[in-house]
Amino acid sequence: MIYLTRRERFSAAHRLFQPGLSDIENLEFYGSCANPNWHGHNYVLWVTVKGEINRENGYLVDLKKVSKILKDRVVDKLDHKNINLEVDFMKDMIVSTENLAVGIWNQIEPGLRKLGIELHSVKLQETENNIVEYFGK
Amino acid sequence: MIYLTRRERFSAAHRLFQPGLSDIENLEFYGSCANPNWHGHNYVLWVTVKGEINRENGYLVDLKKVSKILKDRVVDKLDHKNINLEVDFMKDMIVSTENLAVGIWNQIEPGLRKLGIELHSVKLQETENNIVEYFGK
Amino acid sequence: MIYLTRRERFSAAHRLFQPGLSDIENLEFYGSCANPNWHGHNYVLWVTVKGEINRENGYLVDLKKVSKILKDRVVDKLDHKNINLEVDFMKDMIVSTENLAVGIWNQIEPGLRKLGIELHSVKLQETENNIVEYFGK
Amino acid sequence: MIYLTRRERFSAAHRLFQPGLSDIENLEFYGSCANPNWHGHNYVLWVTVKGEINRENGYLVDLKKVSKILKDRVVDKLDHKNINLEVDFMKDMIVSTENLAVGIWNQIEPGLRKLGIELHSVKLQETENNIVEYFGK
Amino acid sequence: MIYLTRRERFSAAHRLFQPGLSDIENLEFYGSCANPNWHGHNYVLWVTVKGEINRENGYLVDLKKVSKILKDRVVDKLDHKNINLEVDFMKDMIVSTENLAVGIWNQIEPGLRKLGIELHSVKLQETENNIVEYFGK
Amino acid sequence: MIYLTRRERFSAAHRLFQPGLSDIENLEFYGSCANPNWHGHNYVLWVTVKGEINRENGYLVDLKKVSKILKDRVVDKLDHKNINLEVDFMKDMIVSTENLAVGIWNQIEPGLRKLGIELHSVKLQETENNIVEYFGK
Questions:
Q1: How far apart are CA E112 and CA F81, in angstroms?
Q2: Residue B51, by phi and psi: left (phi above 0), alpha (psi -120 to 50) or beta?
Q3: Are the C-beta atoms of E26 and E95 separated by less than 8 Å?
Q4: Taking the domains of chain E in order of start, what are their residue ranges?
Q5: Which pLDDT band, with edges at 50, 70 and 90, does B128 fall under?
Q6: C92: left (phi > 0), else alpha (psi -120 to 50), else beta?
Q7: Predicted local distance difference test score (pLDDT) of residue D90
Q8: Distance (Å, whole) CA E106 – CA E119
Q9: Measured CA angle at F54 (ends F50, F58), to 5 deg
Q10: Shortest Cα distance, chain E CAs vs residue D62, angstroms
Q11: Is E80 labeled as catalytic in the residue annotation?
Q12: Chain E CA closest to residue B131
């Protein structure tokens, strides 16, 4: 069993808020992350897949195929976007790093499985001090 | 003459657009940076000041005083904000990294001068691949 | 189950020595790390907690509460200190990175548990080439 | 149980190809990684070992002994070398990052075991976007 | 006057040798960098251009145009290549980092000038410990 | 004219204090940096030299010769040391990053000049947020 990690990046705007709360209540709970005018981040994403090395070609998987899934299903949907307003798979979700990592997992897991590999983890860095990791369960 | 650099960080939303152009024209010129729904970045800022070392205390300047100016005049105004909508010193400016670096210079130069040191450069990283530096002239 | 990591930093002095050995014996065993005049490091700390995402607010936990525990129980006690002489929870311990990681775990585990989350790991970097990680057992 | 990680680096040339395929077939499968004229990387290696902290000296293991094994068995064999042509333990192997991580594991596992510690993982970064990790099974 | 820097990366093989010297003499002079079987690096390139900010659009220059020049004239020619054997602009040159930085300058300077901006510096990192910078004179 | 930079690292203890002030006065002026029990850092040093490329060998200078000067005159004297107590060239100096950068300049400038190259700058990072650079005048 070998683990292969691909790093990707995207820059996006978001805000944290609960629809049932007022702006003031959201600011009280989420602090400046609830700013109604939005803020943003350079997110860094590490996706780790696992499986057996193919003895014939030395690969777990052709990394270009992994990259294409990440590009089509994640990076192109998130990069230079407003995550709350424009990202289909985060619709009606609170755009916390936690929920975003889970959302990214759900976006890419089926495609990676079709490649014959298993998704191991989605790691998402919001700032250099804050990182979330999700293992699918 | 010694050069002293302080690194600070802020996360903010912005978009690039010229008020005289339509959304479509702005998207044609600025690409996804013109997204009307905003996007954002983790900006990294390096401010370099210069002057003579004080022989009595070994400092060019007490770095805490520099940090306070950066915090009051730059980081607190930009962090978790929408630069186009909420930052006084960028009002009516195109929020390019170039203009933002110049804006930051103008914000901090008078205060640093009062500390008896000279502002040498403002370096601003928008993404790990894009950096702007301004030397005040 | 989601994993959330917070990075913190502190700069401290220390030395490695066994009280039952002479300075020369300690230098033989620990090399320059046993220097009786001390040396120091910029330590980087990553603390990972885990638990279920709160569906109402999208958080595993309010990261500010985690940060406050890390600040009160770890960073304020260690930053700009001599770990051997001044840090209560390392008293009579050999200040190896291994022991320091375990000590930090013990400092923060009860407080994090009170927040309703589980401490997963304490990762401590002494230099860019040396890292220790502790999982509590 | 404590985990201790040592980082090492080496710069080497390699190419990906299957001996049973023509150059054109290899280029089709591996892309530019199959360039018959070679290319190269600055590899970064993190080796993690685990075991109990020695209560007498505070160490899991004397890191200098780990470093010596890594130097003798891995870095000196790979650094400034052509991995395909000159590295004994990669002979007749496809020099993918996956196979190289496994090869490094096999090189160092016996020596680390003799030190009374257990090898936990070999992590190998080929570029800042591509990382492989192997846990020995 | 504003300075704008673009970071690019390429992975390549090379060796250092003087055609008038024997392999042994080259190994004596250049050490393992003269290995006749090649070695390689992940090079990191920072290209800095300078000029006046365009008041109408807030840009020094459209960074995509700079990137295209770097891609066409540098990265596509060097990435996953053997610099000694395959790179036209390094033909008959000793492939030191110094010469490579000058070669890259000459490759991109005319195109950048046509964009109405001035090339300020080419900075090239061979390993995390070795960097060369060239200012064109 | 080409610029060549070598990165080195050392870990050391120090404190900031003026001998004419009491411990309390020093703590008032320098804050926790004046801790009489010392603290420490992982310093990162970048030394930049400049000159003409030697057309015969492609080098500005053999970097191994630069490294040897840095090792003998700087790193071996500072690494795992108490800078206030044990470093000859900082005797009776306030161990600020400013003074340390100047001290390092004076240590290495004559040796580098004998190599036929010119010392351009000494850049010294105390923490990831604080950097000093000295150009010799």
A1: 48
A2: left
A3: no
A4: 2-134
A5: very high
A6: left
A7: 98
A8: 10
A9: 100
A10: 26
A11: yes
A12: E5
User: B58: which DSSP letter?
Assistant: S
- Please give the Cα distance from D44 to D42 (Å, whole number): 7
Which stretches of chain B are assigned E, i.e. beta strand? 2-14, 39-51, 81-82, 118-127, 130-134
CA distances from C32 to B115, E116, F1, F11 (A): 41, 56, 40, 11
Q: What is residue C101's DSSP assignment? A: H
The candidate with the shortest Cα–Cα distance to E126, out of E73, E70, E69, E78, is E78
Torsion of CA E123, B1, E3, F127, to 10 degrees: 70
Chain D partners within 8 Å of E127 (Cβ): 9, 11, 42
What dihedral angle (degrees, nearest 10) is formed by the CA atoms of A29, A31, A37, A39? -120
Number of other residues whose CB lies within 10 A of the CB of residue C10: 21
Q: Which residues of C touch D8 (CB under 8 A)?
A: 129
**What pLDDT shows up at residue D135?**
98
Averaged pLDDT, D19-44 = 97
Residue C24 burial (10 A CB sphere; 0-12, 13-18, 19+): exposed
Q: Which of B57, B61, B62, B123 to mutate to test the interface with F (most CBs of F within 10 A)?
A: B57
pTM of whole model > 0.80?
yes
What pLDDT does residue E93 have? 97
Contact A129 C53 (CB under 8 A): no
d(CA A130, CA F36): 34
Q: How confident is the model at residue D64 (pLDDT cuts 50, 70, 90)?
A: very high
Q: How far is C119 from chain F, CA to nearest CA, in Å? A: 27
Report d(CA B77, CA F121) in Å as an integer: 34
Using 50, 70 and 90 to split pLDDT, how confident is the model at D12?
very high
Q: What pLDDT is attached to residue B2?
A: 98
Beta bridge partners of A121: A48
Report yes or no: E124 and E100 within 8 Å, Cβ to Cβ: yes
> How many Cβ atoms sit within 10 Å of the Cβ of residue E19?
7
ipTM reported for the complex, 2 dp: 0.96
Three-state secondary-structure class, residue C20: coil
CATH number of the B2-134 domain = 3.30.479.10
The Cα–Cα gap between C45 and C123 comes to 6
How far is residue A12's CA from residue D114's CA, in Å, rounded to a whole number? 50
Cβ of F58 within 8 Å of Cβ of E98? The answer is yes
Q: Tell me the per-residue pLDDT of B63-115, one tens digit each, with 9 for 90 and over.
A: 999 999 999 999 999 999 999 999 999 999 999 999 999 999 999 999 999 99
Separation between Cα atoms, residue F55 and residue E27, nearest integer Å: 18
Nearest residue of E to residue F2, measured between CA atoms? E134
| Cβ–Cβ gap E133/F60 under 8 Å | no
pLDDT along chain E (137 residues), means of 10: 98 97 97 98 98 98 97 98 98 97 98 98 98 97
